[in-house]
Amino acid sequence: MTKREGSLEAPTRHAVAWRDPGFYDDAALMGEMERVFDICHGCRRCVNLCTTFPTLFDLVDESKTGEVDGVARQDYWKVVDQCYLCDICFMTKCPYVPPHEWNVDFPHLMLRAKAVKFRKGEVRFRDRLLTSTDALGKLSAIPVVAQTVNAANRNAAARGVLQSVLGVDKRRELPPYAPAKFRSRARVAGRWPVRDGERTPGKVAIFSTCYINYNEPGIGHDLVAILNHNEIPAVLARQESCCGMPKLELGDLEGVERLKQRNIPALVELARQGYAILAPVPSCALMFKQELPLLFAGDADVATVAEAMFDPFEYFMLRNRDGLLKTDFKRPLGKVSYHIPCHGRVQNVGQKTRETLQLVPDTQVTTVERCAGHDGTWGVKEEYFDMSMKIGRPVFRQMAQAEPDFISSDCPIAGRHIQQGIRDGGTTLAAEKAHPLTLLRMAYGLEETS
Q1: What is the span of the domain harbouring residue 238?
Q2: pTM over 0.90
Q3: CA angle at residue 279 from 243 to 396, to 5 degrees?
Q4: What pLDDT digit, counting tens, does each position of 280-332 carry?
Q5: Is residue 335 located within the same domain as residue 425?
Q6: Is 229 exposed, middle or buried (0-12, 13-18, 19+ CB in 10 A)?
């Protein structure tokens, strides 16, 4: 029996020592990867999570010794490149995470390897570009540019050029850019009296995220409509940049720090004023809740923001437990196939989206709790597209089996990926894709905000 299995101690994560020069030492990194890979080889519980572990185990099984010592160290990078830092292996599968004496944190080991690779300059221009979400969003948010980009993304010839030049797979359906940013048209209401709950502040600040701001602002408007309907005063964060998750996944930790320095001063001011901060994309909420506190341990401002950060549905269910969430729903939602994304699961708040949607009368929610395989920029890349679709295949099948009226995921990119996977798999499904915030706005009978 492992220490974790035989103990009541909760799994814990250590701070990432990314400022320590030894963090980037090649020999130390390779030694730690060999140690952890050997533990994983002897366990293999994570074989069905993604392609990272099958890649590792195939390398071991095909080696001359049949053990990790038979794998060429250069081939370790094949494992690293498959990992998209979903954190599920640490959070749900591995029995050897701290406080176990073997101290296995596979995602943070992969992060270290990616940081070493980035510092060496061994990343493509494409990867730097795709993770520069603010720059791409600001350019594409210009109306004529947005129209041109969206048209090009739907054009087979243009997509072929994009694939040959940047390696963005021409088969991947890309999200459109909106001609008007969410922040430019958001109509938040601060006129309501503040009604604090036992578990939640009674006023909200919205960190809209790059995706909501530039790609699907309607989701942000749905959040505002729900808050206004529930008479919860709301404001927008006065300063907002990318949360840093794309840079983290690339291993650009200095880039993460630059974004942290832009975001935290405005957010900590709101937190100290008693606002709950809502981020409507799970990866962004996770970045502030868990990743930044581990990267900047001891930073009091980062810790204060982490305490104030909520997933929207986490916040709604806490309000409901305080008797302050309105349940005057006007429209049933019928059958909803709901996918809980990895970065929602690892926040350890439970299935709050499902619980909220099930408050709506005559609504049946089928939950699929498995990685859909897209993960940020990973699934758009030419070399990983087929793998992303393979990982998502069980999700596509399970989402369609319920013959739902709606397919939904807290992660809007995963929602698009699932919709494409169902259709490309040959399943004819009349279900509409809708974000959970959109579904809740519809259930309240609130009009869509353009």
Answers
A1: 182-319
A2: yes
A3: 95
A4: 999 999 999 999 999 999 999 999 999 999 999 999 999 999 999 999 999 99
A5: yes
A6: middle
